[in-house]
Write a structure and sequence with these properties.
alpha/beta; Dihydrodipicolinate Reductase, domain 2; 2 domains; 13 strands; about 25% strand
């Protein structure tokens, strides 16, 4: 993106901030997020602090008139997301969750296949995404104070993908989980049922490898996509026809391009991934956490 540059960053540690800036060619370093948000030369801010701070830091920027691209999950719960949306709309400032897989060329191709009815009526989706890492009670993945756990970090991909295919509002949610010694969900299994009987079977994990394709099964065929966190390839399988595979790049640049386009066109919300979609996914995750008994100190 030749007409875009990273001008400044904010870090709680000036030393770490300066190290990152030196490695990536960032001109200005601030040791407070307030100072970053007050820089008149900064046009927009990407919030990528730990989950439990997303709402606070995004609202700080929005209240100072700075457009915000906020790392997923946009907040800890739906209440916080609604407050962020209300702040953005009141200030007339752009806000979008950085659900990067929603913006890749392959994802857009898949949505086109679904819209054209290539596999008939979508009926069943399966999506499982996870990795194995060692337990560290102080890390963001295992610390309840940082809203750790697999659901908010990995499961959000599956919930948002199901919303992309079946719509934002399941009529029934069932969930089971293993909650580890630190009090966060180390693996979660979810079953979402939608108004016409469609089903989404989803799971996430931070102690189990779950790198499997995403499958969307329809009445006349199926679509498979590379693992939930990749989306570099997808295959269309229509009954009685040869499979068609597409491949393309998958990186954060596509979501950044969408944010820049919205800001330049003075739109405060993206039509591709609007705040209502983010709010709906957080409501689902709120219910999942209620069922599995995970609640964070920030709540």
């Amino acid at each position: 993106m030749p007409d875009v540059r990273v001008l400044a960053l904010g870090s709680r540690s000036r030393e770490r901030g300066e190290q990152f800036a030196a490695a990536h060619g960032v001109e200005r370093v601030y040791d407070s997020y307030e100072a970053l948000a007050d820089d008149p030369d900064v046009d927009a801010i990407y919030v990528c602090t730990p989950h439990s701070f997303h709402a606070k830091h995004a609202r700080l920027c929005l209240e100072r008139g700075k457009p915000v691209l906020c790392e997923k999950p946009m907040a800890v719960n739906a209440r916080q997301v609604q407050e962020m949306i209300d702040t953005a709309r009141r200030q007339g400032v752009f806000l979008m969750e950085a659900m990067w897989v929603r913006f890749t060329p392959v994802t857009r191709t898949v949505l086109g296949w679904l819209k054209e009815g290539c596999i008939g009526e979508p009926r069943l989706l399966s999506g499982h995404y996870g990795f194995r890492t060692e337990v560290n009670p102080r890390s963001r993945l295992f610390d309840p104070a940082l809203a750790g756990g697999s659901l908010l970090d990995m499961g959000v991909y599956g919930v948002s993908t199901a919303a992309m295919v079946f719509g934002p509002s399941p009529v029934e949610i069932s969930a089971e989980a293993h909650v580890g010694k630190t009090g966060v969900d180390e693996q979660v299994a979810m079953l979402l049922r939608y108004p016409n009987g469609e089903l989404a079977m989803l799971s996430s994990a931070i102690r189990t490898r779950l790198n499997q394709p995403v499958w969307i099964h329809g009445t006349h065929g199926a679509i498979s996509m590379e693992q939930m966190g990749g989306m570099q390839s997808a295959t269309l399988r229509v009954d009685g026809e040869d499979p068609i595979t597409v491949e393309d790049e998958a990186h954060f640049g596509f979501e950044i391009a969408e944010a820049i386009s919205c800001i330049r066109e003075e739109r405060i919300e993206s039509e591709i991934w609007p705040p209502e979609c983010t709010l709906a996914t957080h409501r689902i995750m709120d219910e999942v956490r209620r069922q599995i008994g995970v609640r964070y100190p920030v709540e």
